[in-house]
Design goal:
The protein is globular. It is built from 13 helices and 8 strands. The protein has helices spanning 2-18, 21-27, 40-45, 61-69, 73-82, 84-87, 95-101, 148-160, 181-184, 187-205, 218-226, 248-251, 311-320; strands at residues 109-113, 119-124, 132-137, 165-171, 212-216, 234-238, 256-260, 292-293. α5 runs parallel beside α7. Helix content is 37%, strand content 13%. The protein is of the alpha/beta class. The chain has 2 domains: 2-30 and 117-320, Alpha/Beta hydrolase fold, catalytic domain (Rossmann fold, 3-Layer(aba) Sandwich); 36-106, no CATH class.
C-alpha cells in the first residue's frame, strides 16, 4: 500500500506540473543568459596595461582578485570607466569597484546583467567591513522587474540582525517563470548553483566572511545543488520543495543546515518525490532529513518568512549574526 500511495502521488505531481498543455504554454521553458557579457570583447582586447586582462568566463575569482590586487588605484579606476559592465559583474573584483561600475543600476549594486529578464545583486549594510554576511537566494518568478520583494527581505533581515551584518539580495540566476517544466525540474537550479558558487567564491576572494545562505522555495533547490561547492557557514531553507538530496549527509557540506516550513504554506501540498527528473526530493523539515528545524507556526503564507515579528525572522537574524 505505501508503494501504491507513492506511485499515485508521483503520478499526481506529474499530471499537475506537465500534464496540461495550457500550463506548459503559459510558462514555457526559460533560457538563462548565455555567452559573454556585453563589453567582454573590448575588455579582452584592451592591452593598455601591458598585460592580458583576466577572461571573465574562465578566470577564477581568486585569479581576478590577484589581478586587481597588483593594479594601482588609477589603473583600477580606468578599468571601471572603460569596462563597467565587465568590472561590475566580475566575481573577485573589489567590492567598491563593483559598486562604482554598477552605479547607474542603483546604490550598492554588486552585480547587474540586463539581458533577458535580468539578473541583479544588491547589498544592505556595510559589506566591506562586515563581520557577518548573508545571501538571500529567492525562488521562482524573481527577476529585475520583481526584485523589490527580495530586496525588501534583505532590508528586513538586516534591520533585525546585528549592526556588523551585511545582507545581499541575490537574484543572480534565471528563475522559473510561472507553472511549468522549469519549476518541476532542476535545469535552472543547476545553472543557478554554478552561478551561486562562483558568487560566493568571489566573496571569499574579496576577503569577506563565509556567508549564511537563506534560500526560499525553488532557491532551496539551487542551494542544495551548490552546497558541496560553496564555503557557506549556514544554509537556511524555507518553503522548500526539496534540495535534490535525501538528507543532510547527501548535501556533502560542512555548513549547518536549517529548515522552516509554515503549516499555512502551500508548498506543503507539493509531494516530496523525485522521479524521472521531476520533483525535488525529500522535505528538509522531515525528521529523517537531519536539518535543524526552525519554528514557523506564525508564518502566514509562502512568501512571509521574512515578515517582521515572525519567529522565523527572529531566528534568521540570530543565524545571520552568528548567534545560533
Amino acid at each position: 500500500m505505501p508503494r501504491f500511495r507513492k506511485t499515485l502521488t508521483t503520478a499526481v505531481l506529474t499530471a499537475l506540473l506537465v500534464g496540461s498543455t495550457a500550463g506548459w504554454a503559459s510558462a514555457g521553458s526559460v533560457s538563462a543568459p548565455s555567452g559573454p557579457l556585453p563589453g567582454t570583447a573590448a575588455w579582452l582586447a584592451d592591452d593598455s596595461l601591458g598585460q592580458e586582462l583576466p577572461d571573465p568566463t574562465t578566470a577564477t575569482p581568486a585569479e581576478v582578485a590577484a589581478f586587481f590586487g597588483d593594479l594601482t588605484d588609477a589603473q583600477q579606476q580606468r578599468l571601471v570607466q572603460d569596462h563597467p559592465t565587465v568590472v561590475g559583474n566580475l566575481d573577485g573584483a573589489p567590492v567598491n569597484l563593483r559598486y562604482e561600475a554598477n552605479a547607474p543600476a542603483g546604490d550598492w549594486v554588486l552585480a547587474y546583467d540586463p539581458r533577458g529578464r535580468g539578473l541583479i545583486a544588491q547589498v544592505v549594510g556595510d559589506l566591506e567591513n562586515a563581520t557577518h554576511v548573508s545571501v538571500i537566494v529567492p525562488g521562482s518568478d524573481i527577476d529585475i522587474s520583481t526584485f523589490d520583494r527580495t530586496a525588501q527581505w534583505a532590508a528586513d533581515l538586516r534591520a533585525e540582525a546585528s549592526d556588523d551584518t551585511a545582507v545581499i539580495a541575490w537574484a543572480g540566476y534565471t528563475t522559473p517563470s510561472g507553472i511549468g517544466p522549469d519549476l518541476a525540474t532542476g535545469r535552472l537550479a543547476e545553472t543557478g548553483a554554478e552561478r551561486l558558487t562562483r558568487f560566493t567564491d568571489g566573496l571569499d576572494a574579496a576577503g569577506l566572511p563565509d556567508p549564511a545562505l537563506f534560500c526560499h522555495s525553488y532557491g532551496s533547490v539551487v542551494c542544495g545543488l551548490a552546497a558541496p561547492y560553496t564555503d557557506a557557514s549556514d544554509i537556511v531553507v524555507m518553503g522548500s520543495p526539496g534540495m535534490r538530496a535525501d538528507d543532510v549527509t547527501a548535501l556533502d557540506t560542512d555548513a549547518h543546515v536549517w529548515a522552516a516550513k509554515s503549516p499555512d504554506d502551500w508548498i506543503d501540498r507539493v509531494p516530496n518525490v523525485e522521479v524521472l527528473g521531476l520533483g525535488h526530493g525529500a522535505d528538509p523539515t522531515s525528521p529523517g532529513f537531519g536539518a535543524t528545524v526552525l519554528p514557523a507556526d506564525d508564518v502566514p503564507a509562502h512568501d512571509e518568512y521574512f515578515t517582521t515579528g515572525t519567529s522565523t525572522l527572529t531566528a534568521f537574524a540570530a543565524i545571520a549574526g552568528g548567534d545560533l
